[in-house]
Amino acid sequence: MEIAVAFIAVLGVCLLVAAFWKTPPRESPSTGAKKPTDAERRARAQSLGVVHRSEYLESEAELATLTLDRSGLPTAALEKVRDRLLIATKAGWVNPKSRSLGRVGLYSFQVRGSSYYEGAAKAADFRPGALLTLTREPENEHDLNAVAVYGSHGRKVGYVNKQNAAKIAKRMDAGEDIVAISTRGSGPRSDGTEPQILAAERRVMAHLTCRIS
């Protein structure tokens, strides 16, 4: 009897093992899914009227090509590309989030604190090329380097982010005329893309924008 029970138990295990090997493994949803190439991503971005991050210069190329000329102006100009204005060099486009922009006196950022000025922000014009005004708030209790952003309608829409505000405030306090424009965004009363802002000394901004068509 004991031998029969042991035989049945062994047979059961063998059948389970056989069934396991015959059952093909299930593919996870991601297994076998082909990731799009950078070329495919760029083509899709172009079809949507936007820009993919792979279209920007690599860091090394950016450092080599984005410099200051003999007159102290950036070796670049703003160029209209699909839904935005981009800083264009001879080698290609610079990522607006690049940390190297400060080297040539350029500051690119998204407006902070706009939720506190929602009505003014929605009424503002952030279409590429729209002018904005930067105003120092040295007595701001939250940040002594605070720089407020005003739309062309004269209403506050938010602030420069802290990292850029510290640099811009120092230059503004020294008497420099820092101006700003929107490089990406939508028009008044439009629920669109979060605005991207570019700030620079007035002479530099005039140099950057002289070729915009």
State the assembly state of the protein chains.
Answer: single chain
Distance between the termini: 95 Å
* Helix and strand run: HHHEEEEHEEEHEEH
Strand content: 15-25%
Could you please say which CATH topology applies here?
A: Alpha-Beta Plaits
Main sheet: strands, sense, barrel: 6 strands, antiparallel
Strand order of the largest sheet: 4-9-8-5-6-7
The CATH architecture classification is 2-Layer Sandwich
Overall residue-averaged pLDDT value: 88
Task: For the structure shown, list the relevant keywords.
6 helices; alpha+beta; 3-stranded antiparallel beta sheet; 31% helix; 213 residues; 9 strands; 6-stranded antiparallel beta sheet; Alpha-Beta Plaits; single chain
In short:
31% of the residues lie in helices and 20% in strands.
